[in-house]
Amino acid sequence: AQSVTQLDSQVPVFEEAPVELRCNYSSSVSVYLFWYVQYPNQGLQLLLKYLSGSTLVKGINGFEAEFNKSQTSFHLRKPSVHISDTAEYFCAVISLAGGTSYGKLTFGQGTILTVHP
Amino acid sequence: GAVVSQHPSWVICKSGTSVKIECRSLDFQATTMFWYRQFPKQSLMLMATSNEGSKATYEQGVEKDKFLINHASLTLSTLTVTSAHPEDSSFYICSARDQVGSGINTGELFFGEGSRLTVL
Description:
The complex is a heterodimer of chains A (117) and B (120).
Chain A: E1 3-6, E2 10-14, E3 19-21, E4 23-26, E5 31-38, E6 44-50, E7 56-58, E8 64-68, E9 73-78, E10 87-95, E11 105-107, E12 111-116
Parallel strand pairs in A: 2-12
Antiparallel strand pairs in A: 1-4, 3-9, 5-6, 5-10, 7-8, 8-9, 10-11, 10-12
Chain B: E1 4-7, E2 10-13, E3 19-25, E4 32-38, E5 44-51, E6 57-58, E7 67-73, E8 76-81, E9 90-96, E10 110-111, E11 115-119
Parallel strand pairs in B: 2-11
Antiparallel strand pairs in B: 1-3, 3-8, 4-5, 4-9, 5-6, 7-8, 9-10, 9-11
């Protein structure tokens, strides 16, 4: 089975500052990795995903993430945040193992990013 | 991207009543939809996988008779919370994978807006 750990439950930051949201995963098989954003009382929107290829993935709204296989990490970064980036961010993995786990999305606990003026 | 719509967005009901939540894929067909539950300040927990034309697959610990799932068409899945109690109050979110060229390779699930259930 796979698991996802987001190391920070809350990250406060000032506007225009850089930010990194950390994500580590555990899996005995290959996985695909995702970052989703959730605004209050809304569903989830995909920010970016890593399936294969280049380990640096660029997503929407200026976010990017780097897949590090040796450290089993997939940290999300943005060089300069805006007030509108305030939301909860979820890291997730899809297992590529066969059986009942195939295709299921497992989420981390979430990180609340609060951008202050 | 593809659009998934949930209805209702908010529902308040009395304890003991049943509540139905709909999940529709508006511009694509989905043979598989997923139902998640999210408690306040917690992550999303997969409840069940809804399969068009067959029975849903429930995760361990989820009561099948409590949370009835019906996937009657390629664009609609429903979750019925039967005999709801206050502890069933939660944010329920569905997601769907575009059937065309989906497989696992696109990897992307499209999420509904969520339905907040409050049981009094």
